[in-house]
Amino acid sequence: MEKEMSYGSDYKPIPATSMASGVGIEVLPDLYCHTVQIVNINLVGNPETNDFVLVDAGMPGSVNEIITATEARFGSTSRPKAIILTHGHFDHVGAVIELVKHWNVPVYAHELEMPFLTGKMSYPDPDPTVEGGLVAKISPLFPNEPINLGNKVETLPTNGKVPHMPKFRWIHTPGHTPGHVSFFRESDRALIAGDAFVNVKQESLYKVFTQEQEISGPPRYLTPDWEAAKNSVIELESLKPIVAVTGHGLPMTGELLSQSLEELVRDFDSIALPDYGKYVN
Ligand SMILES: [Zn+2]
Ligand SMILES: [Zn+2]
């Protein structure tokens, strides 16, 4: 019997936004990145084949925006084959339940992310005391309790393959969350990094608003394991991606991306690691 899906009791819209909100960018012919307020969703697949998936599911309350963006790209009544999650933070699963109901599609995530997607475990509390800007200060407002997708969520295959994303493989990139994954395609070195690193200083309300491009580690207020986070960045840099879309900020490509990633690895402790906060030392 199908169980009712539910959000946590602290689920609510968050009124933060950016200049990129509502804007979509065709990063590659089969990779479309759309910004919902302050977070990105990706439509992966070629519009001509109508065979595509949604990577991540936006902010709370964004279901209509996501359906509209999807239908604008793939045609009315189009639906993805699946929803694939980089991780289960509220800003990446904000509309997932409504979308699953509307499209009747499965959700995939890493095994270690399951407790947060099946109502079993809350994420660690966000850290408002962490070094950084105003977004960190308001982070206690963010929904933190697990959602419950019941039997609609499945684990990613253990062989690294990604359902309905034939040329991509998933890479376990923990640190920001235990089951965080990124997606990489060797043939054109395209990377969907989630929040393993991001292209904007996500702690700063001003920089989030302007979307000023600046490579950064994972959002500080929600990252409890900095050692794992650093190793994940090192692994992603070693893939030498040519194009990267991240959970927050504008897509980054070419020389700017490779130089920024090299810098992030080299100076991780000064760029990414907060000077203080409850999850450092
Ligand atoms: Zn996150
Ligand atoms: Zn995020």
UniProtKB/TrEMBL annotation:
GO molecular function list: hydrolase activity
Stored InterPro entries: Metallo-B-lactamas, NDM-1-like, RibonucZ/Hydroxyglut_hydro
Highest taxon listed in the record's lineage: Bacteria
Keywords for the protein's UniProt record, in alphabetical order: Hydrolase
Pfam families per the UniProt record, alphabetical: Lactamase_B (PF00753)
CDD domains per UniProt: yflN-like_MBL-fold
Gene3D superfamilies: Ribonuclease Z/Hydroxyacylglutathione hydrolase-like
Domain Metallo-beta-lactamase, chain residue ranges per copy: 38-248
PANTHER family: METALLO-BETA-LACTAMASE DOMAIN-CONTAINING, METALLO-BETA-LACTAMASE DOMAIN-CONTAINING PROTEIN
Protein name: MBL fold metallo-hydrolase
Species assigned in the record: Anaerobacillus isosaccharinicus
